[in-house]
């Protein structure tokens, strides 16, 4: 029978056989798929794996620290933390257009990644978290699939001249649920295994207009409150229903920082500060989504906490638009 244990044993054996005594490199984003590949390769080949974590400074509050913790303390792999925050900040300084942000962030990732790769000796393989639906989707893309033409998502690897790696894609016949189950069986923590979708370009596409360090810091704090409250809300729904994606739970939830300011009042003082937009949707595949009918108490608590705890914010608005006609993200 197909137990999780036997699936892992088979994958581990296949990776060992393919890799032999060569080295493997992997771009670790902190997302579910690349983390599960890393955990699987850690079990199969240990320190023959180098995980490259390119920190673009656009992850959510505490995420870089959490990724580093898991892949240095819990798994025994070679872990490289690339501090690229300043380079990304400089590249994005004057950029407003969303697709331009995506293009810059995506191409800089590969520059950072190959800089590390070229310094390592004897790397023959590149491991990737491609899952089965990615393969279907890229098929759809070639035949003019619509989703990918609205926002550019990823993922064709622009190998520099003269560089070649053989690919290892151990998840390419699994669906997302199976990948999560694998992750749990391999000992990855819930905050990674059940992480909500998070776009590769990160918070840069949740700051409308130019990205600055001040705006990033406001958004990180506000987003941390949104996640804390809605993680707790989802946990309560899960405790009641036993379902992680029940009709009442929220699928993706985050804060957006628009490029406007509005007037408010605090004590006797007039304020002129940013609003935060709360986005929370129900979905199963991100192709369509409904805005979440959250209880007023939950909405109220998120709003009060953000204006009380995040300097520079004096108003909170809730986005009550479904997809279509809106998209889930604002950019
Ligand atoms: P939209 O905004 O198109 O998003 O309704 C659908 C899903 O895709 C995520 N998303 C991205 N993921 N790179 C990614 O890896 C991107 O550039 C990107 N843009 C959107 C979004 O968070 C949602 O889950």
From TrEMBL:
Keywords attached to this entry: ATP-binding, Glutamine amidotransferase, GMP biosynthesis, Ligase, Nucleotide-binding, Purine biosynthesis
Segments traversing the membrane: none
Pathway(s) this gene product operates in, as recorded in its UniProt entry: Purine metabolism; GMP biosynthesis; GMP from XMP (L-Gln route): step 1/1
UniProt binding sites for ATP: 29-35
Entry EC no(s): 6.3.5.2
Reaction(s) catalysed (UniProt annotation): XMP + L-glutamine + ATP + H2O = GMP + L-glutamate + AMP + diphosphate + 2 H(+)
UniProt superkingdom: Bacteria
GMPS ATP-PPase domain mapped to chain residues: 2-195
Main EC class the enzyme belongs to: ligase
Keyword Ligase: yes
Keyword Cytoplasm belongs to the record: no
Self-association state and partner proteins as the record states: Homodimer.
Summary of the function given for this chain in its UniProt record: Catalyzes the synthesis of GMP from XMP.
Stated name of the protein: GMP synthase [glutamine-hydrolyzing]
Species the sequence originates in: Raoultibacter timonensis
Portion of the full sequence shown: 201 to 531 of 531
């Amino acid at each position: 029978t197909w137990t999780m244990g036997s699936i892992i044993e088979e994958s581990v054996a296949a990776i060992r056989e393919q890799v032999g005594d060569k080295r493997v490199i992997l771009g670790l984003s902190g997302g579910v798929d690349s983390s599960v590949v890393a955990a699987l390769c850690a079990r199969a080949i240990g320190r023959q794996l180098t995980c490259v974590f390119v920190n673009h400074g656009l992850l959510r509050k505490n995420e870089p620290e959490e990724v580093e913790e898991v892949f240095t303390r819990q798994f025994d792999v070679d872990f490289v933390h690339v501090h690229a925050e300043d380079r990304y900040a400089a590249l994005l300084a004057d950029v407003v257009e969303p697709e331009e942000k995506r293009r810059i962030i995506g191409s800089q990732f590969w520059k950072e990644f190959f800089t590390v790769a070229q310094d390592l000796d004897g790397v023959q393989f590149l491991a990737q978290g491609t899952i089965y639906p990615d393969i279907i989707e890229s098929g759809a893309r070639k035949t003019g699939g619509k989703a990918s033409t609205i926002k550019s998502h990823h993922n064709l690897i622009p190998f520099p001249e003269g560089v070649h790696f053989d690919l290892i894609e151990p998840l390419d016949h699994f669906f997302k649920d199976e990948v999560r189950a694998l992750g749990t069986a391999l000992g990855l923590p819930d905050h990674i295994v059940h992480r909500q979708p998070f776009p590769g370009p990160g918070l840069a596409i949740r700051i409308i207009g130019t990205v600055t360090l001040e705006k990033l810091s406001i958004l990180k704090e506000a987003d941390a409150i949104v996640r804390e409250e809605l993680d707790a809300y989802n946990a309560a729904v899960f405790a009641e229903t036993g379902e992680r994606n029940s009709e009442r739970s929220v699928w993706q939830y985050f804060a957006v920082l628009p490029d406007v300011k509005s007037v408010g009042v605090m004590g006797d003082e007039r304020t002129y500060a940013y609003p935060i937009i709360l986005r929370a949707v129900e979905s199963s595949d991100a192709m369509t989504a409904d805005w979440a009918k959250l209880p007023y108490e939950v909405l109220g608590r998120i709003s009060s906490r953000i204006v009380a705890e995040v300097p520079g914010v004096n108003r909170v608005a809730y986005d009550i638009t479904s997809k279509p006609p809106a998209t889930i993200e604002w950019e």
